[in-house]
Amino acid sequence: MRIVLITGISGSGKSVALNVLEDLGYYCVDNLPPALLPHLVSTLVGEGLRSLAVAVDARSAESLATLPTDVAHLREEGHDVRVMFLTANTHSLVARFSETRRSHPLSHELRPGQNPAARRTLIECILEERERLSAIEQLGHVVDTSELSANKLRAWVKDLVELEHAPLTLFFESFAFKLGVPMDADFVFDVRALPNPYYDLSLRPLTGRDAPVIEFLDAQPSAGEMLEDIRAFVEKWLPSFKTDNRSYLTVALGCTGGQHRSVYIAEKLAAYFHASERVVIRHREQ
């Protein structure tokens, strides 16, 4: 059975991801206590179902501890299990809860000896949830949704689940430093030292995927040198991540606005590694 396990911080887009999977034909279960996962899989396999998506949150605090073991056992049984951990910075989470006017799931929990009238604040709930989920954050692929629209998140989720089984998938992601570094990045490279096409008025409205910008940066010796340095670094260390049984490796490339230089470098790296690796390219600001 193909199983996609969605977990992460409340407000980071788990419902959006689950809806995408439902549209793709997955049997979806929301807020499942982790302890019930093996039994659910066994039952659905007996009924002939082949694709399952399950969302798990921090309310099942006690059984979360067994989740890594349960996932390992399911994989040993031959199931294709993929885990997505969605997160976002606290500022974005607070803004989302404010916009939707929904309460945080942990706000209804009472701490031992606590007066029912004295519940956790939203910030306290977010911090508590991060603490509870910290042990399983690296169980799968981390996706930072802080600067993502719902439509972009839907596209990224589809990219993740449509990947065929492979030892490791390389993600090259461009971003703007002014909007923050992606929390899901394994490596971050700063390409702001390169000449900036933004200052050429004819290039300003274009992106690093447009021919005039590519020609501009191709003509810069520093761009070629930086591209080669990053390529050599990734190529040198990629085998170590494969032997460490990693499923995903995210290489983030940042410039000021996430439009020209970072996009150019990300596209060049993706094109190079595409010949030998499973590659996904993402441009956060586009």
TrEMBL record:
<dbReference type="Pfam" id="PF22740">
    <property type="entry name" value="PapZ_C"/>
</dbReference>
<dbReference type="InterPro" id="IPR005337">
    <property type="entry name" value="RapZ-like"/>
</dbReference>
<dbReference type="InterPro" id="IPR053930">
    <property type="entry name" value="RapZ-like_N"/>
</dbReference>
<dbReference type="InterPro" id="IPR053931">
    <property type="entry name" value="RapZ_C"/>
</dbReference>
<keyword id="KW-0342">GTP-binding</keyword>
<dbReference type="InterPro" id="IPR027417">
    <property type="entry name" value="P-loop_NTPase"/>
</dbReference>
<protein>
    <submittedName>
        <fullName>RNase adapter RapZ</fullName>
    </submittedName>
</protein>
<dbReference type="Pfam" id="PF03668">
    <property type="entry name" value="RapZ-like_N"/>
</dbReference>
<feature type="binding site">
    <location>
        <begin position="57"/>
        <end position="60"/>
    </location>
    <ligand>
        <name>GTP</name>
    </ligand>
</feature>
<keyword id="KW-0067">ATP-binding</keyword>
<feature type="binding site">
    <location>
        <begin position="8"/>
        <end position="15"/>
    </location>
    <ligand>
        <name>ATP</name>
    </ligand>
</feature>
<keyword id="KW-0547">Nucleotide-binding</keyword>
<feature type="domain" description="RapZ-like N-terminal">
    <location>
        <begin position="1"/>
        <end position="158"/>
    </location>
</feature>
<feature type="domain" description="RapZ C-terminal">
    <location>
        <begin position="169"/>
        <end position="285"/>
    </location>
</feature>
